[in-house]
Specification:
Blueprint lengths: L6 H30 L9 H10 L9 H19 L18 H21 L6 H30 L4 H7 L8 H4 L1 H14 L18 H4 L2 H26 L6 H21 L5 H22 L1
Protein backbone atom coordinates (compact mmCIF):
# COMPACT_ATOMS: atom_id res chain seq x y z
CA UNK A 1 0.00 0.00 0.00
CA UNK A 2 1.36 3.46 -0.93
CA UNK A 3 1.21 6.21 1.68
CA UNK A 4 -1.36 8.99 1.24
CA UNK A 5 -1.70 12.00 3.52
CA UNK A 6 -5.48 11.55 3.63
CA UNK A 7 -4.88 8.43 5.71
CA UNK A 8 -3.66 10.51 8.67
CA UNK A 9 -7.07 12.01 9.64
CA UNK A 10 -8.70 8.62 9.12
CA UNK A 11 -6.11 7.07 11.43
CA UNK A 12 -6.82 9.72 14.06
CA UNK A 13 -10.51 8.92 13.71
CA UNK A 14 -9.67 5.26 14.34
CA UNK A 15 -7.83 6.21 17.54
CA UNK A 16 -10.81 8.33 18.67
CA UNK A 17 -13.32 5.52 18.09
CA UNK A 18 -11.14 2.84 19.69
CA UNK A 19 -10.28 5.06 22.67
CA UNK A 20 -13.93 5.73 23.49
CA UNK A 21 -14.84 2.08 22.98
CA UNK A 22 -11.97 1.11 25.28
CA UNK A 23 -13.04 3.57 27.97
CA UNK A 24 -16.59 2.21 27.98
CA UNK A 25 -15.62 -1.44 27.69
CA UNK A 26 -12.93 -1.25 30.41
CA UNK A 27 -15.45 0.22 32.83
CA UNK A 28 -18.04 -2.40 31.84
CA UNK A 29 -15.57 -5.23 32.41
CA UNK A 30 -14.55 -3.78 35.77
CA UNK A 31 -18.23 -3.73 36.71
CA UNK A 32 -18.66 -7.35 35.56
CA UNK A 33 -15.68 -8.42 37.68
CA UNK A 34 -17.10 -6.49 40.64
CA UNK A 35 -20.51 -8.14 40.32
CA UNK A 36 -18.81 -11.56 40.33
CA UNK A 37 -17.33 -10.56 43.69
CA UNK A 38 -20.74 -9.29 44.86
CA UNK A 39 -19.70 -5.65 44.68
CA UNK A 40 -21.38 -2.80 42.85
CA UNK A 41 -18.40 -1.65 40.76
CA UNK A 42 -17.51 1.70 39.22
CA UNK A 43 -19.89 3.77 37.09
CA UNK A 44 -19.58 3.36 33.31
CA UNK A 45 -18.47 6.99 32.98
CA UNK A 46 -15.78 6.76 35.69
CA UNK A 47 -12.87 6.46 33.24
CA UNK A 48 -13.86 9.73 31.56
CA UNK A 49 -13.95 11.53 34.91
CA UNK A 50 -10.54 10.16 35.89
CA UNK A 51 -8.93 11.24 32.62
CA UNK A 52 -10.37 14.76 32.75
CA UNK A 53 -9.22 15.19 36.35
CA UNK A 54 -5.70 13.85 35.84
CA UNK A 55 -5.04 15.64 32.55
CA UNK A 56 -5.96 18.87 34.34
CA UNK A 57 -3.34 18.38 37.08
CA UNK A 58 0.31 19.47 36.97
CA UNK A 59 3.25 18.43 39.12
CA UNK A 60 6.42 20.22 40.28
CA UNK A 61 8.17 17.00 41.42
CA UNK A 62 11.25 16.13 39.38
CA UNK A 63 12.65 12.61 38.98
CA UNK A 64 14.60 13.05 35.76
CA UNK A 65 13.72 13.15 32.08
CA UNK A 66 13.50 9.40 31.52
CA UNK A 67 11.09 8.97 34.44
CA UNK A 68 8.56 11.18 32.68
CA UNK A 69 9.30 9.73 29.26
CA UNK A 70 8.16 6.30 30.51
CA UNK A 71 4.41 7.01 30.16
CA UNK A 72 5.08 8.64 26.78
CA UNK A 73 6.83 5.51 25.52
CA UNK A 74 4.03 3.40 26.98
CA UNK A 75 1.34 5.35 25.13
CA UNK A 76 3.45 5.40 21.95
CA UNK A 77 3.42 1.60 21.94
CA UNK A 78 -0.38 1.48 22.06
CA UNK A 79 -0.98 4.27 19.54
CA UNK A 80 1.71 3.00 17.16
CA UNK A 81 0.36 -0.53 17.25
CA UNK A 82 -3.13 0.71 16.41
CA UNK A 83 -1.95 3.07 13.67
CA UNK A 84 0.05 0.50 11.72
CA UNK A 85 -2.52 -2.31 11.83
CA UNK A 86 -5.62 -2.32 9.59
CA UNK A 87 -8.76 -1.95 11.71
CA UNK A 88 -11.51 -2.66 9.17
CA UNK A 89 -10.63 -5.02 6.32
CA UNK A 90 -11.54 -3.72 2.87
CA UNK A 91 -11.99 -0.14 4.09
CA UNK A 92 -9.74 2.54 2.60
CA UNK A 93 -10.58 4.86 5.49
CA UNK A 94 -9.68 2.45 8.28
CA UNK A 95 -6.77 0.54 6.78
CA UNK A 96 -4.65 3.10 8.69
CA UNK A 97 -0.91 3.19 7.90
CA UNK A 98 -0.53 -0.54 7.26
CA UNK A 99 2.04 -1.71 4.73
CA UNK A 100 3.74 -4.88 3.52
CA UNK A 101 5.64 -6.38 6.43
CA UNK A 102 3.60 -4.58 9.10
CA UNK A 103 3.36 -7.82 11.10
CA UNK A 104 7.00 -7.48 12.21
CA UNK A 105 6.46 -3.85 13.22
CA UNK A 106 3.42 -4.88 15.26
CA UNK A 107 5.53 -7.30 17.28
CA UNK A 108 7.98 -4.50 18.06
CA UNK A 109 5.22 -2.15 19.19
CA UNK A 110 3.79 -4.79 21.52
CA UNK A 111 7.05 -4.78 23.51
CA UNK A 112 8.00 -1.12 23.01
CA UNK A 113 5.85 0.32 25.79
CA UNK A 114 7.07 -2.19 28.36
CA UNK A 115 10.70 -1.29 27.71
CA UNK A 116 9.86 2.40 28.04
CA UNK A 117 8.21 1.88 31.39
CA UNK A 118 11.23 -0.12 32.57
CA UNK A 119 13.52 2.80 31.73
CA UNK A 120 11.18 5.21 33.52
CA UNK A 121 10.95 3.06 36.64
CA UNK A 122 14.75 2.76 36.77
CA UNK A 123 15.00 6.55 37.23
CA UNK A 124 12.29 6.79 39.86
CA UNK A 125 14.74 6.48 42.74
CA UNK A 126 12.56 3.92 44.47
CA UNK A 127 14.65 1.27 46.28
CA UNK A 128 12.50 -1.56 44.91
CA UNK A 129 12.29 -0.35 41.31
CA UNK A 130 14.88 -2.88 40.14
CA UNK A 131 12.78 -5.69 41.62
CA UNK A 132 9.68 -4.43 39.84
CA UNK A 133 11.54 -4.11 36.53
CA UNK A 134 12.90 -7.63 36.83
CA UNK A 135 9.49 -9.09 37.64
CA UNK A 136 7.72 -7.17 34.91
CA UNK A 137 10.18 -7.80 32.08
CA UNK A 138 10.58 -11.48 33.02
CA UNK A 139 6.86 -12.17 32.86
CA UNK A 140 6.16 -10.02 29.80
CA UNK A 141 9.09 -11.51 27.86
CA UNK A 142 7.96 -15.03 28.70
CA UNK A 143 4.39 -14.22 27.62
CA UNK A 144 5.57 -12.71 24.32
CA UNK A 145 7.60 -15.79 23.36
CA UNK A 146 4.64 -18.09 22.54
CA UNK A 147 2.97 -15.16 20.75
CA UNK A 148 6.06 -14.72 18.55
CA UNK A 149 6.09 -18.45 17.81
CA UNK A 150 2.39 -18.36 16.87
CA UNK A 151 2.91 -15.33 14.63
CA UNK A 152 5.80 -17.01 12.83
CA UNK A 153 3.64 -20.10 12.32
CA UNK A 154 0.89 -17.98 10.79
CA UNK A 155 3.40 -16.15 8.57
CA UNK A 156 4.71 -19.52 7.32
CA UNK A 157 1.17 -20.76 6.76
CA UNK A 158 0.08 -17.79 4.64
CA UNK A 159 3.55 -17.03 3.19
CA UNK A 160 3.29 -13.32 3.97
CA UNK A 161 4.18 -10.75 6.61
CA UNK A 162 1.31 -8.45 5.65
CA UNK A 163 -1.58 -8.40 8.10
CA UNK A 164 -3.96 -7.30 5.34
CA UNK A 165 -3.04 -10.32 3.20
CA UNK A 166 -3.46 -12.64 6.20
CA UNK A 167 -6.95 -11.26 6.78
CA UNK A 168 -7.74 -11.62 3.07
CA UNK A 169 -6.77 -15.30 3.18
CA UNK A 170 -9.33 -15.87 5.95
CA UNK A 171 -12.31 -14.46 4.09
CA UNK A 172 -15.11 -16.62 2.69
CA UNK A 173 -16.52 -18.09 5.91
CA UNK A 174 -15.51 -18.71 9.49
CA UNK A 175 -14.02 -22.11 8.62
CA UNK A 176 -11.26 -20.20 6.81
CA UNK A 177 -10.19 -18.46 10.01
CA UNK A 178 -6.79 -19.36 11.40
CA UNK A 179 -8.68 -20.61 14.44
CA UNK A 180 -9.73 -23.62 12.35
CA UNK A 181 -6.89 -23.87 9.84
CA UNK A 182 -4.09 -23.64 12.44
CA UNK A 183 -5.57 -24.25 15.91
CA UNK A 184 -2.20 -24.91 17.57
CA UNK A 185 -0.93 -21.44 16.67
CA UNK A 186 -4.14 -19.90 17.98
CA UNK A 187 -3.90 -21.91 21.21
CA UNK A 188 -0.33 -20.73 21.83
CA UNK A 189 -1.28 -17.13 21.02
CA UNK A 190 -4.32 -17.15 23.31
CA UNK A 191 -2.26 -18.53 26.20
CA UNK A 192 0.19 -15.68 25.60
CA UNK A 193 -2.78 -13.31 25.40
CA UNK A 194 -3.73 -14.10 28.99
CA UNK A 195 -0.31 -13.01 30.20
CA UNK A 196 0.01 -9.93 28.01
CA UNK A 197 -3.33 -8.49 29.21
CA UNK A 198 -1.95 -8.15 32.78
CA UNK A 199 -5.13 -9.47 34.31
CA UNK A 200 -5.39 -12.24 36.95
CA UNK A 201 -3.73 -14.67 37.31
CA UNK A 202 -0.87 -12.77 35.63
CA UNK A 203 -1.20 -9.35 37.31
CA UNK A 204 1.28 -9.90 40.15
CA UNK A 205 3.52 -7.22 38.58
CA UNK A 206 0.83 -4.65 39.39
CA UNK A 207 -0.84 -6.50 42.28
CA UNK A 208 -3.30 -3.62 42.80
CA UNK A 209 -4.81 -5.03 45.99
CA UNK A 210 -1.56 -5.76 47.84
CA UNK A 211 1.31 -3.49 46.75
CA UNK A 212 0.89 0.26 47.42
CA UNK A 213 3.84 1.17 45.17
CA UNK A 214 4.70 1.04 41.51
CA UNK A 215 3.71 3.12 38.47
CA UNK A 216 0.05 3.72 39.46
CA UNK A 217 1.19 5.51 42.65
CA UNK A 218 4.63 6.86 41.66
CA UNK A 219 3.22 8.56 38.58
CA UNK A 220 0.66 11.29 39.05
CA UNK A 221 -1.17 14.17 37.35
CA UNK A 222 -1.03 14.17 33.53
CA UNK A 223 1.63 11.43 33.50
CA UNK A 224 -0.80 9.10 35.24
CA UNK A 225 -3.44 10.19 32.72
CA UNK A 226 -1.14 9.07 29.89
CA UNK A 227 -0.85 5.65 31.53
CA UNK A 228 -4.61 5.46 32.01
CA UNK A 229 -5.14 6.35 28.35
CA UNK A 230 -2.77 3.60 27.28
CA UNK A 231 -4.45 1.18 29.71
CA UNK A 232 -7.69 1.40 27.71
CA UNK A 233 -6.09 1.79 24.25
CA UNK A 234 -3.26 -0.76 24.27
CA UNK A 235 -5.38 -3.86 25.11
CA UNK A 236 -7.77 -3.02 22.26
CA UNK A 237 -4.83 -2.55 19.87
CA UNK A 238 -3.44 -5.97 20.82
CA UNK A 239 -6.86 -7.55 20.39
CA UNK A 240 -7.10 -6.00 16.91
CA UNK A 241 -3.88 -7.83 16.01
CA UNK A 242 -5.29 -11.10 17.39
CA UNK A 243 -8.57 -10.57 15.57
CA UNK A 244 -6.79 -9.99 12.27
CA UNK A 245 -4.36 -12.87 12.59
CA UNK A 246 -6.56 -15.59 14.07
CA UNK A 247 -10.27 -14.67 13.86
CA UNK A 248 -10.84 -13.43 10.32
CA UNK A 249 -10.55 -9.71 10.99
CA UNK A 250 -13.53 -7.36 10.81
CA UNK A 251 -15.27 -5.97 7.74
CA UNK A 252 -17.42 -3.45 9.63
CA UNK A 253 -17.48 -1.59 12.93
CA UNK A 254 -20.31 -3.68 14.45
CA UNK A 255 -18.32 -6.85 13.69
CA UNK A 256 -15.23 -5.15 15.14
CA UNK A 257 -16.99 -4.26 18.40
CA UNK A 258 -18.42 -7.75 18.86
CA UNK A 259 -15.19 -9.64 18.12
CA UNK A 260 -13.06 -7.35 20.29
CA UNK A 261 -15.48 -7.72 23.19
CA UNK A 262 -15.59 -11.51 22.93
CA UNK A 263 -11.80 -11.85 22.72
CA UNK A 264 -11.39 -9.49 25.68
CA UNK A 265 -13.86 -11.55 27.69
CA UNK A 266 -11.55 -14.57 27.46
CA UNK A 267 -9.05 -12.86 29.76
CA UNK A 268 -11.85 -11.55 31.96
CA UNK A 269 -13.35 -15.03 32.43
CA UNK A 270 -9.96 -16.50 33.34
CA UNK A 271 -9.27 -13.57 35.66
CA UNK A 272 -12.38 -13.99 37.79
CA UNK A 273 -11.96 -17.77 38.07
CA UNK A 274 -8.27 -18.39 38.80
CA UNK A 275 -6.12 -17.03 41.64
CA UNK A 276 -2.97 -14.99 41.07
CA UNK A 277 0.34 -16.60 40.07
CA UNK A 278 3.69 -15.60 41.48
CA UNK A 279 6.20 -14.49 38.84
CA UNK A 280 8.12 -17.78 38.86
CA UNK A 281 4.84 -19.70 38.66
CA UNK A 282 3.68 -17.73 35.62
CA UNK A 283 7.03 -18.19 33.85
CA UNK A 284 6.94 -21.91 34.54
CA UNK A 285 3.33 -22.06 33.27
CA UNK A 286 4.28 -20.43 29.95
CA UNK A 287 7.31 -22.70 29.55
CA UNK A 288 5.32 -25.89 30.20
CA UNK A 289 2.15 -25.14 28.23
CA UNK A 290 2.36 -22.20 25.82
CA UNK A 291 5.89 -22.45 24.40
CA UNK A 292 5.73 -26.16 23.39
CA UNK A 293 2.42 -25.57 21.62
CA UNK A 294 3.96 -22.64 19.72
CA UNK A 295 6.98 -24.72 18.69
CA UNK A 296 4.70 -27.55 17.52
CA UNK A 297 2.65 -25.03 15.48
CA UNK A 298 5.81 -23.91 13.64
CA UNK A 299 6.89 -27.52 13.02
CA UNK A 300 3.50 -28.37 11.52
CA UNK A 301 3.42 -25.18 9.47
Amino acid sequence: MTFEWIQIPYSLLTIFIVLNYGLLMTALIAKIAARVGRRHGIPIWQNYADLVKNYGLRSSITHGVMFYMGPVFRLTGGVGLLLFVPTIYGSVMFSNLSFAGDLILALYFVFFGTLGMALGAAESGHPYSAIGITRGLSQVTMAELPLALAVFAVALQYQTLSITEIVAAQQGGFLNWTLFTNPLAVAAAMLAFLGSMMRPPFDVVLAPQEIPIGPPTEYHSSYLALMQTNRVLFPIAKIVVYMNLFFGGATSWPEFFIKVFLIYMVSVLVGVVFPRFRVEQSIRWFMIWAVPIGILAIVLA
